[in-house]
Amino acid sequence: MALPLPEYEGWDATSMAALIRDGQLSALEVLEAAIARAEARTGANGLNAISHRHHEQARAEASRLAGLGPAERARRAAGAPLLGVPFLLKDLGLALQGTVTSHGCAFFQDAVADHDSTLVQRYKAAGLNIFGKTTSPEFGQTATTESRLYGRTLNPWNPALSSGGSSGGAAVAVAAGVLPVAHASDGGGSIRIPASHCGLFGLKPSRGRLPTGPRMLEGWMGLSTHHVISRSVRDSALLLQLTQGAEPGSRTAPPSDDMLGALQRPPRTLRIGLLETNPFGLPVHPDCQDAARRAAALCESLGHQVEPVPLPLPAALVGEMFAGMGVVTTTGLLASVHAREQQLGRAVRESELEAVSWGNIDRARGHSAEQLLAARASFDQVGRLFDMFFAGHDLLLSPVTAAPPPPLGAMSLDQPYDDYVKAAVMASPFTALFNMSGHPAMSVPLHWNAAGLPLGAQFVAALGAEARLLALAAQLEQAAPWAARRPPA
Protein backbone atom coordinates (compact mmCIF):
# COMPACT_ATOMS: atom_id res chain seq x y z
CA MET A 1 0.00 0.00 0.00
CA ALA A 2 1.38 3.39 -1.02
CA LEU A 3 1.78 5.77 1.90
CA PRO A 4 1.14 9.53 1.60
CA LEU A 5 4.04 11.93 1.07
CA PRO A 6 6.70 9.44 -0.07
CA GLU A 7 9.40 12.04 0.62
CA TYR A 8 8.24 12.38 4.24
CA GLU A 9 10.80 9.94 5.64
CA GLY A 10 13.70 11.96 4.26
CA TRP A 11 12.88 14.96 6.46
CA ASP A 12 13.98 15.54 10.01
CA ALA A 13 11.79 17.62 12.32
CA THR A 14 13.78 20.79 11.61
CA SER A 15 13.28 20.60 7.85
CA MET A 16 9.66 19.46 8.26
CA ALA A 17 8.91 22.54 10.36
CA ALA A 18 10.45 24.81 7.72
CA LEU A 19 8.25 23.30 5.00
CA ILE A 20 5.13 23.84 7.13
CA ARG A 21 6.17 27.39 8.06
CA ASP A 22 6.78 28.30 4.41
CA GLY A 23 3.46 26.88 3.28
CA GLN A 24 4.94 24.12 1.12
CA LEU A 25 3.13 21.57 3.30
CA SER A 26 0.22 21.79 5.68
CA ALA A 27 0.33 20.52 9.25
CA LEU A 28 -2.59 18.23 8.36
CA GLU A 29 -0.74 16.64 5.42
CA VAL A 30 2.26 15.91 7.61
CA LEU A 31 0.14 14.51 10.44
CA GLU A 32 -1.74 12.17 8.12
CA ALA A 33 1.58 10.94 6.73
CA ALA A 34 2.74 10.15 10.28
CA ILE A 35 -0.53 8.42 11.25
CA ALA A 36 -0.53 6.32 8.08
CA ARG A 37 3.00 5.07 8.82
CA ALA A 38 2.16 4.44 12.46
CA GLU A 39 -0.83 2.31 11.50
CA ALA A 40 0.93 0.46 8.68
CA ARG A 41 4.18 -0.32 10.49
CA THR A 42 3.94 0.04 14.25
CA GLY A 43 0.47 -1.13 15.20
CA ALA A 44 -0.22 -4.24 17.25
CA ASN A 45 0.08 -6.42 14.13
CA GLY A 46 3.38 -4.83 13.15
CA LEU A 47 6.30 -3.65 15.25
CA ASN A 48 3.90 -2.76 18.10
CA ALA A 49 5.32 0.61 19.17
CA ILE A 50 2.13 2.61 19.82
CA SER A 51 0.16 2.20 23.05
CA HIS A 52 -2.31 5.09 22.76
CA ARG A 53 -3.73 6.99 19.80
CA HIS A 54 -4.75 10.63 20.11
CA HIS A 55 -5.45 11.08 16.43
CA GLU A 56 -8.61 13.15 16.60
CA GLN A 57 -7.15 15.69 19.02
CA ALA A 58 -4.09 15.97 16.78
CA ARG A 59 -6.20 16.29 13.63
CA ALA A 60 -8.20 19.11 15.20
CA GLU A 61 -4.98 20.96 16.04
CA ALA A 62 -3.50 20.33 12.58
CA SER A 63 -6.69 21.59 10.94
CA ARG A 64 -6.50 24.81 12.93
CA LEU A 65 -2.90 25.31 11.86
CA ALA A 66 -3.71 24.47 8.23
CA GLY A 67 -6.34 27.21 8.24
CA LEU A 68 -3.88 29.96 9.17
CA GLY A 69 -2.86 32.55 6.61
CA PRO A 70 0.83 32.88 5.65
CA ALA A 71 1.48 35.90 7.87
CA GLU A 72 -0.15 34.39 10.96
CA ARG A 73 1.55 31.05 10.37
CA ALA A 74 4.94 32.76 10.15
CA ARG A 75 4.20 34.79 13.28
CA ARG A 76 3.34 31.68 15.27
CA ALA A 77 6.31 29.73 13.92
CA ALA A 78 8.64 32.48 15.10
CA GLY A 79 7.71 31.62 18.69
CA ALA A 80 7.08 27.92 18.09
CA PRO A 81 9.88 26.66 15.81
CA LEU A 82 8.41 23.15 15.43
CA LEU A 83 4.89 24.35 14.60
CA GLY A 84 2.79 21.48 13.27
CA VAL A 85 5.43 18.74 13.52
CA PRO A 86 3.91 15.40 14.65
CA PHE A 87 5.19 14.04 17.95
CA LEU A 88 4.75 11.06 20.26
CA LEU A 89 5.11 10.90 24.05
CA LYS A 90 6.41 7.85 25.85
CA ASP A 91 3.71 6.14 27.93
CA LEU A 92 5.71 6.69 31.10
CA GLY A 93 6.46 9.61 33.36
CA LEU A 94 4.69 12.48 31.59
CA ALA A 95 1.08 13.63 31.83
CA LEU A 96 -1.01 14.89 28.90
CA GLN A 97 -4.25 16.31 30.26
CA GLY A 98 -7.34 14.25 29.45
CA THR A 99 -5.37 11.18 28.30
CA VAL A 100 -4.14 7.98 29.92
CA THR A 101 -0.55 7.42 30.99
CA SER A 102 -0.49 3.72 31.87
CA HIS A 103 3.26 3.29 32.55
CA GLY A 104 2.84 -0.04 30.75
CA CYS A 105 0.94 -1.38 33.77
CA ALA A 106 -2.57 -2.85 33.98
CA PHE A 107 -3.11 -1.17 37.36
CA PHE A 108 -2.84 2.23 35.59
CA GLN A 109 -4.51 1.38 32.27
CA ASP A 110 -7.36 3.84 32.87
CA ALA A 111 -5.41 6.53 34.79
CA VAL A 112 -6.43 9.80 33.10
CA ALA A 113 -4.22 12.83 33.70
CA ASP A 114 -5.78 16.01 35.07
CA HIS A 115 -2.87 18.25 33.99
CA ASP A 116 0.00 18.64 31.55
CA SER A 117 3.52 17.95 32.79
CA THR A 118 5.85 20.93 32.56
CA LEU A 119 7.80 19.28 29.75
CA VAL A 120 4.58 18.61 27.82
CA GLN A 121 3.73 22.29 28.18
CA ARG A 122 7.12 23.11 26.65
CA TYR A 123 6.61 20.64 23.81
CA LYS A 124 3.29 22.27 23.02
CA ALA A 125 4.85 25.74 23.22
CA ALA A 126 7.48 24.57 20.71
CA GLY A 127 4.61 23.78 18.32
CA LEU A 128 4.72 19.97 18.43
CA ASN A 129 1.45 18.19 17.67
CA ILE A 130 1.11 15.15 19.96
CA PHE A 131 -0.81 12.32 18.27
CA GLY A 132 -0.19 9.38 20.60
CA LYS A 133 2.05 7.57 23.06
CA THR A 134 4.71 4.91 22.58
CA THR A 135 5.09 1.61 24.39
CA SER A 136 7.14 1.12 27.55
CA PRO A 137 7.71 -1.84 29.86
CA GLU A 138 6.01 -1.72 33.25
CA PHE A 139 7.31 1.45 34.95
CA GLY A 140 10.49 1.37 32.87
CA GLN A 141 11.92 -1.34 35.11
CA THR A 142 13.81 -3.18 32.36
CA ALA A 143 15.94 -2.53 29.28
CA THR A 144 13.49 -4.08 26.84
CA THR A 145 10.04 -2.93 25.75
CA GLU A 146 7.71 -5.79 26.54
CA SER A 147 4.68 -5.77 28.79
CA ARG A 148 1.77 -7.99 29.66
CA LEU A 149 -0.52 -5.04 28.91
CA TYR A 150 0.68 -4.18 25.38
CA GLY A 151 2.82 -7.11 24.28
CA ARG A 152 6.28 -7.09 22.70
CA THR A 153 7.72 -4.16 20.77
CA LEU A 154 9.85 -5.62 17.97
CA ASN A 155 13.27 -4.48 16.83
CA PRO A 156 12.88 -3.31 13.20
CA TRP A 157 16.38 -4.62 12.36
CA ASN A 158 15.45 -8.12 13.54
CA PRO A 159 11.94 -8.71 14.92
CA ALA A 160 13.11 -11.67 17.03
CA LEU A 161 15.25 -9.32 19.13
CA SER A 162 14.60 -6.69 21.78
CA SER A 163 14.19 -3.08 20.68
CA GLY A 164 15.78 -1.97 23.95
CA GLY A 165 14.06 -0.14 26.72
CA SER A 166 12.47 1.37 28.35
CA SER A 167 12.00 3.83 25.46
CA GLY A 168 11.81 1.07 22.87
CA GLY A 169 8.49 2.25 21.47
CA ALA A 170 9.95 5.70 20.79
CA ALA A 171 13.05 4.25 19.12
CA VAL A 172 11.03 1.86 16.95
CA ALA A 173 8.65 4.62 15.84
CA VAL A 174 11.60 6.75 14.71
CA ALA A 175 13.52 3.84 13.14
CA ALA A 176 10.39 2.76 11.25
CA GLY A 177 9.97 6.22 9.72
CA VAL A 178 6.79 7.14 11.58
CA LEU A 179 8.36 10.41 12.71
CA PRO A 180 11.87 11.87 12.92
CA VAL A 181 12.03 12.41 16.68
CA ALA A 182 10.06 11.16 19.70
CA HIS A 183 10.00 11.76 23.45
CA ALA A 184 11.94 9.31 25.61
CA SER A 185 13.15 9.04 29.20
CA ASP A 186 16.21 7.51 30.82
CA GLY A 187 16.57 6.16 34.37
CA GLY A 188 19.36 3.65 33.75
CA GLY A 189 20.00 3.80 30.01
CA SER A 190 16.46 3.95 28.65
CA ILE A 191 17.25 6.53 25.95
CA ARG A 192 20.71 5.27 25.04
CA ILE A 193 20.01 1.51 24.94
CA PRO A 194 17.05 1.62 22.49
CA ALA A 195 18.87 4.26 20.41
CA SER A 196 21.80 1.82 20.20
CA HIS A 197 19.60 -1.18 19.37
CA CYS A 198 17.69 0.73 16.67
CA GLY A 199 20.50 2.69 14.98
CA LEU A 200 19.53 6.17 16.20
CA PHE A 201 20.92 9.12 18.15
CA GLY A 202 20.00 9.32 21.83
CA LEU A 203 21.19 11.91 24.36
CA LYS A 204 20.52 11.70 28.10
CA PRO A 205 20.84 15.24 29.51
CA SER A 206 22.49 16.24 32.77
CA ARG A 207 20.49 15.84 35.94
CA GLY A 208 18.13 18.79 36.24
CA ARG A 209 18.58 20.08 32.65
CA LEU A 210 14.94 19.28 31.74
CA PRO A 211 11.86 19.61 33.97
CA THR A 212 10.07 16.54 35.35
CA GLY A 213 7.33 18.33 37.34
CA PRO A 214 5.13 19.81 38.42
CA ARG A 215 4.07 16.94 40.71
CA MET A 216 7.57 15.47 41.21
CA LEU A 217 10.68 17.49 40.45
CA GLU A 218 13.10 14.55 40.38
CA GLY A 219 12.35 11.08 39.04
CA TRP A 220 13.85 8.23 41.08
CA MET A 221 15.76 10.70 43.30
CA GLY A 222 17.45 12.22 40.26
CA LEU A 223 18.27 8.99 38.40
CA SER A 224 15.65 9.59 35.71
CA THR A 225 15.48 12.37 33.17
CA HIS A 226 13.69 13.08 29.88
CA HIS A 227 14.61 14.05 26.34
CA VAL A 228 14.20 12.46 22.88
CA ILE A 229 15.44 9.81 20.48
CA SER A 230 16.07 11.19 16.99
CA ARG A 231 17.55 10.43 13.62
CA SER A 232 19.44 13.73 13.30
CA VAL A 233 21.69 15.42 15.85
CA ARG A 234 20.20 18.83 15.11
CA ASP A 235 16.69 17.70 16.08
CA SER A 236 17.99 16.57 19.47
CA ALA A 237 19.86 19.87 19.90
CA LEU A 238 16.80 21.92 18.91
CA LEU A 239 14.48 20.08 21.31
CA LEU A 240 17.02 20.46 24.10
CA GLN A 241 17.32 24.18 23.31
CA LEU A 242 13.55 24.63 23.43
CA THR A 243 12.83 22.62 26.59
CA GLN A 244 15.84 23.12 28.89
CA GLY A 245 15.75 25.17 32.05
CA ALA A 246 14.42 25.20 35.58
CA GLU A 247 10.76 25.08 36.55
CA PRO A 248 9.37 26.50 39.80
CA GLY A 249 10.88 24.47 42.63
CA SER A 250 13.93 23.27 40.65
CA ARG A 251 17.24 23.47 42.47
CA THR A 252 19.62 21.53 40.19
CA ALA A 253 19.21 22.90 36.65
CA PRO A 254 22.50 23.64 34.82
CA PRO A 255 22.69 27.07 33.12
CA SER A 256 20.93 27.16 29.74
CA ASP A 257 23.32 26.77 26.81
CA ASP A 258 23.23 27.49 23.07
CA MET A 259 22.79 23.91 21.89
CA LEU A 260 22.19 24.79 18.25
CA GLY A 261 25.20 27.10 18.19
CA ALA A 262 27.36 24.20 19.34
CA LEU A 263 26.58 22.36 16.10
CA GLN A 264 28.12 25.17 14.06
CA ARG A 265 31.46 25.10 15.88
CA PRO A 266 33.71 22.07 15.26
CA PRO A 267 35.05 20.93 18.62
CA ARG A 268 38.63 21.70 19.50
CA THR A 269 40.98 18.75 19.93
CA LEU A 270 39.37 16.62 22.63
CA ARG A 271 41.08 14.33 25.12
CA ILE A 272 38.90 11.23 25.25
CA GLY A 273 39.25 8.32 27.68
CA LEU A 274 38.27 4.90 26.29
CA LEU A 275 36.65 2.62 28.89
CA GLU A 276 36.19 -0.99 27.80
CA THR A 277 36.07 -2.73 31.19
CA ASN A 278 32.64 -3.88 32.35
CA PRO A 279 32.00 -2.27 35.79
CA PHE A 280 30.73 -5.65 37.01
CA GLY A 281 33.95 -7.38 35.96
CA LEU A 282 32.02 -9.51 33.44
CA PRO A 283 32.98 -9.98 29.79
CA VAL A 284 32.02 -7.44 27.11
CA HIS A 285 30.82 -8.93 23.82
CA PRO A 286 33.34 -8.42 20.98
CA ASP A 287 30.72 -6.63 18.84
CA CYS A 288 30.20 -4.04 21.59
CA GLN A 289 33.94 -3.63 21.97
CA ASP A 290 34.17 -3.12 18.20
CA ALA A 291 31.55 -0.36 18.37
CA ALA A 292 33.58 1.58 20.95
CA ARG A 293 36.92 0.94 19.21
CA ARG A 294 35.62 2.02 15.82
CA ALA A 295 34.25 5.18 17.40
CA ALA A 296 37.67 5.76 18.97
CA ALA A 297 39.40 5.31 15.60
CA LEU A 298 36.98 7.74 13.95
CA CYS A 299 37.61 10.31 16.67
CA GLU A 300 41.36 9.93 16.19
CA SER A 301 40.97 10.40 12.43
CA LEU A 302 39.23 13.70 13.20
CA GLY A 303 42.20 14.87 15.26
CA HIS A 304 41.07 13.96 18.77
CA GLN A 305 43.24 12.15 21.30
CA VAL A 306 41.95 8.82 22.62
CA GLU A 307 43.61 6.82 25.39
CA PRO A 308 42.52 3.71 27.31
CA VAL A 309 41.44 4.43 30.89
CA PRO A 310 40.37 2.28 33.84
CA LEU A 311 37.02 2.75 35.55
CA PRO A 312 37.68 5.60 37.99
CA LEU A 313 35.63 3.96 40.75
CA PRO A 314 36.69 1.49 43.46
CA ALA A 315 35.10 -1.96 43.19
CA ALA A 316 33.41 -1.63 46.59
CA LEU A 317 31.63 1.54 45.47
CA VAL A 318 30.40 -0.14 42.26
CA GLY A 319 28.59 -2.82 44.25
CA GLU A 320 27.25 -0.28 46.72
CA MET A 321 25.88 2.10 44.12
CA PHE A 322 24.17 -0.56 41.98
CA ALA A 323 22.56 -1.98 45.12
CA GLY A 324 21.47 1.57 45.96
CA MET A 325 19.98 1.95 42.52
CA GLY A 326 17.82 -1.08 43.18
CA VAL A 327 16.66 0.43 46.48
CA VAL A 328 15.69 3.72 44.81
CA THR A 329 13.95 2.31 41.74
CA THR A 330 11.91 -0.28 43.62
CA THR A 331 10.95 2.27 46.27
CA GLY A 332 9.84 4.60 43.47
CA LEU A 333 7.67 1.80 42.07
CA LEU A 334 6.16 1.16 45.50
CA ALA A 335 5.36 4.86 45.97
CA SER A 336 3.65 5.08 42.57
CA VAL A 337 1.57 1.97 43.21
CA HIS A 338 0.64 3.18 46.70
CA ALA A 339 -0.54 6.54 45.32
CA ARG A 340 -2.72 4.72 42.79
CA GLU A 341 -4.13 2.52 45.55
CA GLN A 342 -5.15 5.62 47.49
CA GLN A 343 -6.71 7.10 44.36
CA LEU A 344 -8.76 3.98 43.66
CA GLY A 345 -9.49 3.15 47.29
CA ARG A 346 -8.30 -0.44 46.98
CA ALA A 347 -5.10 -2.47 47.02
CA VAL A 348 -3.28 -3.57 43.89
CA ARG A 349 -3.86 -7.18 42.90
CA GLU A 350 -1.01 -9.50 41.99
CA SER A 351 -2.64 -10.06 38.59
CA GLU A 352 -2.26 -6.33 37.85
CA LEU A 353 1.55 -6.39 38.02
CA GLU A 354 4.13 -8.51 36.28
CA ALA A 355 6.14 -11.03 38.29
CA VAL A 356 9.36 -9.01 38.68
CA SER A 357 7.43 -5.84 39.53
CA TRP A 358 5.37 -7.67 42.15
CA GLY A 359 8.55 -9.00 43.72
CA ASN A 360 10.19 -5.57 43.58
CA ILE A 361 7.29 -4.04 45.50
CA ASP A 362 7.67 -6.71 48.15
CA ARG A 363 11.41 -5.98 48.37
CA ALA A 364 10.79 -2.25 48.59
CA ARG A 365 8.56 -2.69 51.63
CA GLY A 366 11.62 -3.95 53.47
CA HIS A 367 13.85 -0.98 52.58
CA SER A 368 14.67 1.51 55.29
CA ALA A 369 15.10 5.27 55.22
CA GLU A 370 18.74 4.68 56.06
CA GLN A 371 19.17 2.59 52.92
CA LEU A 372 17.71 5.38 50.79
CA LEU A 373 20.09 7.91 52.30
CA ALA A 374 23.01 5.53 51.77
CA ALA A 375 21.97 5.05 48.14
CA ARG A 376 21.91 8.77 47.48
CA ALA A 377 25.27 9.18 49.23
CA SER A 378 26.80 6.52 46.96
CA PHE A 379 25.44 8.32 43.89
CA ASP A 380 27.05 11.53 45.12
CA GLN A 381 30.38 9.74 45.48
CA VAL A 382 30.11 8.41 41.94
CA GLY A 383 29.44 11.93 40.72
CA ARG A 384 32.40 13.30 42.66
CA LEU A 385 34.82 10.72 41.24
CA PHE A 386 33.67 11.26 37.67
CA ASP A 387 33.94 15.03 38.17
CA MET A 388 37.57 14.42 39.11
CA PHE A 389 38.01 12.29 35.96
CA PHE A 390 36.59 15.07 33.77
CA ALA A 391 39.05 17.53 35.27
CA GLY A 392 41.67 15.71 33.16
CA HIS A 393 39.56 14.48 30.21
CA ASP A 394 37.02 16.16 27.95
CA LEU A 395 34.97 13.01 27.31
CA LEU A 396 34.66 9.35 28.21
CA LEU A 397 33.93 6.78 25.49
CA SER A 398 32.55 3.27 26.15
CA PRO A 399 30.21 0.65 24.71
CA VAL A 400 26.52 1.37 25.33
CA THR A 401 25.73 -2.20 26.39
CA ALA A 402 27.87 -5.20 27.26
CA ALA A 403 26.02 -7.42 24.75
CA PRO A 404 24.09 -6.97 21.48
CA PRO A 405 20.27 -6.87 21.53
CA PRO A 406 19.00 -10.01 23.33
CA PRO A 407 16.13 -12.21 22.15
CA LEU A 408 12.65 -11.06 23.04
CA GLY A 409 11.60 -12.44 26.39
CA ALA A 410 15.09 -12.54 27.90
CA MET A 411 14.57 -9.35 29.93
CA SER A 412 10.81 -9.49 30.32
CA LEU A 413 9.43 -8.55 33.73
CA ASP A 414 6.92 -11.37 33.44
CA GLN A 415 9.29 -14.19 34.45
CA PRO A 416 11.16 -15.42 37.56
CA TYR A 417 13.43 -12.77 39.03
CA ASP A 418 16.65 -14.80 38.81
CA ASP A 419 16.10 -15.47 35.09
CA TYR A 420 15.47 -11.77 34.49
CA VAL A 421 18.68 -10.72 36.26
CA LYS A 422 20.90 -12.99 34.15
CA ALA A 423 20.08 -11.02 31.01
CA ALA A 424 19.53 -7.62 32.59
CA VAL A 425 23.04 -7.46 34.05
CA MET A 426 24.46 -7.17 30.51
CA ALA A 427 22.17 -4.34 29.44
CA SER A 428 23.08 -1.30 31.50
CA PRO A 429 26.41 -1.58 33.36
CA PHE A 430 27.88 1.26 31.27
CA THR A 431 24.79 3.47 30.97
CA ALA A 432 23.47 3.36 34.55
CA LEU A 433 26.73 4.81 35.91
CA PHE A 434 25.75 8.19 34.54
CA ASN A 435 22.19 8.16 35.83
CA MET A 436 23.75 7.80 39.25
CA SER A 437 26.44 10.43 38.62
CA GLY A 438 24.09 12.81 36.77
CA HIS A 439 26.46 13.40 33.84
CA PRO A 440 25.16 13.84 30.27
CA ALA A 441 25.74 10.88 27.95
CA MET A 442 24.84 10.01 24.37
CA SER A 443 24.61 6.94 22.16
CA VAL A 444 25.89 7.55 18.62
CA PRO A 445 25.08 5.01 15.83
CA LEU A 446 28.49 4.42 14.24
CA HIS A 447 28.72 0.63 13.92
CA TRP A 448 26.68 -2.27 12.50
CA ASN A 449 27.87 -5.80 13.24
CA ALA A 450 28.19 -8.73 10.82
CA ALA A 451 24.54 -9.65 11.45
CA GLY A 452 23.47 -6.17 10.36
CA LEU A 453 22.51 -5.01 13.86
CA PRO A 454 23.32 -1.45 14.97
CA LEU A 455 25.51 -0.99 18.05
CA GLY A 456 25.98 2.48 19.48
CA ALA A 457 29.00 4.05 21.13
CA GLN A 458 28.49 5.98 24.37
CA PHE A 459 30.15 9.35 24.96
CA VAL A 460 29.95 11.06 28.36
CA ALA A 461 30.86 14.64 29.32
CA ALA A 462 31.22 16.77 32.42
CA LEU A 463 28.03 17.88 34.17
CA GLY A 464 26.28 20.51 32.07
CA ALA A 465 28.51 19.93 29.02
CA GLU A 466 25.80 18.78 26.58
CA ALA A 467 27.04 21.36 24.06
CA ARG A 468 30.40 19.58 23.91
CA LEU A 469 28.68 16.26 23.24
CA LEU A 470 26.46 17.75 20.55
CA ALA A 471 29.40 19.43 18.83
CA LEU A 472 31.22 16.10 18.60
CA ALA A 473 28.03 14.28 17.55
CA ALA A 474 27.55 16.73 14.67
CA GLN A 475 31.16 16.17 13.60
CA LEU A 476 30.71 12.38 13.74
CA GLU A 477 27.40 12.59 11.86
CA GLN A 478 29.13 14.46 9.05
CA ALA A 479 32.12 12.09 8.97
CA ALA A 480 30.09 8.86 9.14
CA PRO A 481 26.46 9.65 8.19
CA TRP A 482 23.83 7.26 9.47
CA ALA A 483 20.52 8.81 8.33
CA ALA A 484 20.38 6.73 5.16
CA ARG A 485 20.86 3.44 7.05
CA ARG A 486 17.34 2.09 7.48
CA PRO A 487 15.99 -1.23 8.75
CA PRO A 488 14.98 -3.78 6.09
CA ALA A 489 11.47 -3.22 4.80
Short summary:
By secondary structure, the chain is α+β, with helices and mostly antiparallel strands. Helix content is 39%, strand content 15%.
Characterise the protein shown here:
With 489 residues, the chain is α+β, with helices and mostly antiparallel strands. It is 39% helix and 15% strand. It is built from 16 helices and 15 strands. The protein has helices at residues 13-21, 27-41, 55-66, 70-79, 118-125, 168-175, 192-198, 233-243, 259-263, 286-301, 315-344, 355-364, 369-390, 417-424, 433-437, 466-479; strands at 50-53, 86-90, 129-134, 146-147, 151-152, 154-155, 158-162, 181-186, 201-204, 225-230, 271-274, 305-308, 395-399, 441-448, 454-461. The strands form 4 sheets. An 8-stranded mixed sheet has the order 8-10-9-14-15-13-11-12, with helices on both faces. A 3-stranded mixed sheet has the order 1-3-2. Strands 4-5 form a two-stranded antiparallel ribbon. Strand 6 (154-155) and strand 7 (158-162) form a beta hairpin.
